[in-house]
Amino acid sequence: MTELLAHLVSWIGAHPHLAGMAVFCVAFAESMAVVGLLVPGAAMILAAGALIAAGALSFWPTMAWAAAGAILADGFSFWLGHHYREDIRSFRLLANHPHMLARGEEFFRHHGGKSVFIGRFVGPVRPVIPLVAGMLGMEPLQFVLYNVLSGLLWAPAYLLPGMAFGASLSLAGEVAGRLAMLIGGLVLGGWLVFAMARRMVRFGLRRFPAWEERLLRAVRSSPLLHRWLGGLLFRELSLLRPLLLFVGLFGACGWVFLRITGDVLHGEPLVLVDHYLYNLLQGLRTPWGDTLMTAVTMTGDAAVLVAVAAVACCWLLWRRAGYSARFLGITTGGGFLLVYTIKNVTRIPRPAELYQGVVQWAFPSSHATMAVVVYGFLALLCGRELEPGRRWLPGALAILLAAAIGFSRLYLGAHWFSDVAAGYALGMAWLILMAVSYFHRVPACRYHGLCRLVLATFFLVVLLHWSAGFERNRTMYQVRQSVTSMHFTRWLRDGWQEMPPARQDLEGEQEQFFNLQYAGSPSWLAQELARVGWRRPQPLTAASCLRWLAAAPDPLTLPVLPQVHAGRHETLLLVRPRPGSRTSFFALRLWPAGVELDDTPLYLGTVTRMEVRTYLGLVSLPRTGAVLPAAALEMPAAVGRQAVHRPDCREVLLLWQPEKGRGKGSVQGPAREPGSLPAGRARGRAGD
């Protein structure tokens, strides 16, 4: 990922005019009449802002290109409306979608000339307002004034959030490229899931009466179907009518669940997909990502689901909505019974042993199943009390939450992909069955306030659940590292070559070269290195992060972001000033190697130069620079050491705590080679 970004930045640096033209074309298409609804220009302009934060583009030229594209596109749209007037309605695209012009005309008549300025920032009417303004005879000079002002504000309004997001990805990238990828994927994936869920729910609510009417017409036109089903379908309230409408989706969910079950039980190719996705997501693990995903997965724990459903049931009973309360209880209890029964029958193991009892089995995922069932049914109940135009919102939020919970189970290695997919299919089938049964005889909605109650209860229960068990769950879900044994003398002889040569970030991507290997206690090494000027950096806290905003800060007063190797942060992080520099310093990091040398843990480490870089003119962040040669490192006399070379001639310094070594220090490293530079001066040269 880092290499791809570097290539992109270098290409843009070599072709700045092409990059500017690309920004111009995107802004032009995004603002063009009607076409702007089809072009994701806003997202592309945000991406341009992220490239500005990465240093690939300059702010002022990019803003000028974006503003010019938006202003010219709106000007062309205005000319079309001004030239064709009412004939514009006969254009094929507008004739097929007359509501687009109607919405723009209503907006323009309500706001007048300033609608050109306001409409620039209002998504649904943005691409048609200039067209409508010209069609309705707005004065060209007045349009130009509003158009230019809005274009000059629109460009930075979209670029600045992109720059902030790009800077945040730079912060995440300093920790790990996998963290930056995870954040970007979650933001993009969450937005796509919510947008798709919103469209699906609104489409279903809008089209359901038409589908029902088509079903009735089809039955009336067929004498055989009319004789068999007419008496049931033409009742005012019929269970069979909605059931037939949902039978396709219900059957599809049931078929998917049975197909996945068969593949899993018989070792079909889906199992290979399980292992591929498991290894892929485990390659994205970071401690901060684990913290986020643990928090998400706990929102799908049985304790949270049962508590939220129980409070909603009690409230419905208090409001004398016993019918709804009974169905909510049956849906929740039946869902748990169904999923735990299937788990006990299939007995498919998880990727890692996490639980005991019936929940130790993986298939299907109870988190995925019950998130769909409980949050989905609560969304149906909440939607009943809302206006028709807002009933999509609870359903979209439920889909987004269920999708996030399912992804968290995959990320944390608690389930295979087939477990989560089968859980979604099973949950949807059960939810459809219970929803159809519920709406068969549901009385009129006489309660109000369930939405607020469910949201308040959800947040309260989740906060209590986090406070009671977050650390326990984070420990349970943390990356498990296997430990192997090796003799100390073999490590000194040639075993050190079996260690990873560089820090592993994304799968197949290597970051800083490991120029240290250390056997012993990290705290002992920190004490010894303190004698030669090394110290621990400022702790990374919310308060200390404010130091990043200081003007011309002392580098050693800035908190240093952790870095990730094999899914873990460093065990030890030390810093030391760089002689003669006020914008850089040295950093030493150690990570567990997963190897024990005669019961002594082995660590892999780097010593790098840290450069303080400024982002957006506000944030001064230490970023990792070059790796220092091992020969330039100064070590106290008490630390055992030996310099070795890899086949590529890179030098690695082997360090050990003498009393921890084999024979309690009997193995001594070679003395300093004659003519080598003193450590402090050598370190200064290495950083130049």
3D architecture notes:
The protein is an alpha+beta fold and 688 residues long. The protein has three domains: 2-175, no CATH class; 248-477, Vanadium-containing Chloroperoxidase, domain 1 (Up-down Bundle); 484-686, no CATH class. 58% of the residues lie in helices and 11% in strands. It has 23 helices and twelve strands. The chain has helices at residues 2-14, 16-31, 41-53, 59-84, 92-96, 98-111, 115-119, 129-135, 140-175, 177-221, 223-233, 240-266, 270-282, 287-298, 302-318, 322-346, 366-384, 392-411, 417-440, 450-477, 488-493, 522-529, 679-686; strands at 484-486, 502-504, 510-513, 516-519, 564-565, 568-569, 572-577, 584-597, 600-615, 619-627, 640-645, 651-656. Strands 1, 4, 7, 8, 9, 10, 11 and 12 form an eight-stranded mixed sheet that branches. It has a two-stranded antiparallel sheet with strand order 2-3. The protein is flat and about 90 Å long.
What keywords describe this structure?
alpha+beta, flat, Vanadium-containing Chloroperoxidase, domain 1, 688 residues, disordered N terminus, two-stranded antiparallel ribbon, 8-stranded mixed β-sheet, 12 strands, disordered C terminus, 3 domains
CATH architect. name of the largest domain: Up-down Bundle
What's the β-strand tally?
Answer: 12
Level-1 CATH class name of the largest domain: Mainly Alpha
Report how far the terminal alpha carbons are from each other: 27 Å
The biggest beta sheet, please?
8 strands, mixed
Average pLDDT for all residues: 74
Structural class: alpha+beta
Number of domains: 3
Morphology: flat
Q: Can you give the helix content as a percent range?
A: 55-70%
As for the CATH topology of the largest domain, it is Vanadium-containing Chloroperoxidase, domain 1
How many alpha or pi helices?
A: 23
Strand content: 5-15%
Kindly provide the radius of gyration, computed on alpha-carbon positions and rounded to a whole number of angstroms. Answer: 31 Å
- Which segments are poorly predicted (pLDDT under 50) over 5 or more consecutive residues? 1-6, 172-179, 228-241, 661-688
